């Protein structure tokens, strides 16, 4: 269940603005605020079944957006790749003592790559 909640949360972060206001509100109340179907139903003055149907329909829509656009997949893939770049760079930095003084330029460039990768990950 936690995995699905995380998935929906990420999909909502990327595609939430493409949903109707009512869909956004219900998804936020259910996944963001952790309210039950009954609590949402009472708060919005609609049936519990309407809340359930909206959640299921909205989940389907979010997964369809991801299937077509792939933004979440691309984002997570880019993050994994940048993290791998950082691991490689750190491995090189940790072994710099075996290099000659002539490669100072390479070490400076490695530092720049590392800085850029870290900036991307922080955004």
TrEMBL record:
SUPFAM superfamilies from the UniProt entry: Sigma3 and sigma4 domains of RNA polymerase sigma factors
InterPro entries, A to Z: RNA_pol_sigma_r3/r4-like, UPF0122, UPF0122_fam_protein, WH-like_DNA-bd_sf
Pfam families documented for this protein: UPF0122 (PF04297)
HAMAP family, A to Z: UPF0122
PANTHER family: UPF0122 PROTEIN CBO2450/CLC_2298 (PTHR40083), UPF0122 PROTEIN YLXM (PTHR40083:SF1)
Family, similarity comment: Belongs to the UPF0122 family.
Functional description taken from the UniProt entry: Might take part in the signal recognition particle (SRP) pathway. This is inferred from the conservation of its genetic proximity to ftsY/ffh. May be a regulatory protein.
Name under which the protein is recorded: UPF0122 protein HNQ80_003927
Organism: Anaerosolibacter carboniphilus
